[in-house]
Amino acid sequence: MKILTGLIVILILFSCKEVDCNDVKQAFYPDEYNLIVNESNIDLTWIKINGFTPISGERSEIMVHNNWKLDSNTFEQGDTIMKRKGTLDLTVHKKDTTLLFNWYCRGKPYK
User: Fold this and answer.
1) How far is residue 28's CA from residue 85's CA, in Å, rounded to a whole number?
2) Nearby residues of 1 by Cβ (< 8 Å), 6 or more positions away
């Protein structure tokens, strides 16, 4: 039993490799957001936003990994969150200002 446990631990350790930012960013490139925030729930791992699209007025939601290092105070009701297809930057339009957030990979801003 100890041998089997030891083999499992070794397999897990060898299967862990460093994240390739180019591979990870490919998952985020096709995403596009344009949403007026109604409710937001943000932690170190996830961004969850409920709201509606400004053009159609349809209810929509976003749930993505928090690679922009946003915190729970980033959004207020009525803010607009935008991310264009083919880019990694996230833009937040507030009543009196616009905020631009870089996408992070392995702790550093990535373009």
Assistant:
1) 9
2) none
Tens digits of residue pLDDT in 65-109: 899 999 988 999 999 999 998 889 999 999 999 999 999 988 889
Residues across the chain: 111
Q: What is the 3-state secondary structure (H, E, C) of 4-68?
A: HHHHHHHHHHHHCCCCCHHHHHHHHCCCCEEEEEEEEEECCCEEEEEEECCCCCCEEEEEEECCC
In tens, the pLDDT along 24-73 reads: 788 787 889 899 999 999 999 999 999 999 989 999 999 998 999 999 88
What letter does residue 90 receive in the DSSP assignment? E
Q: Is the pTM of this model over 0.90?
A: no
Q: Alpha-carbon distance 51 to 34, whole Å?
A: 10
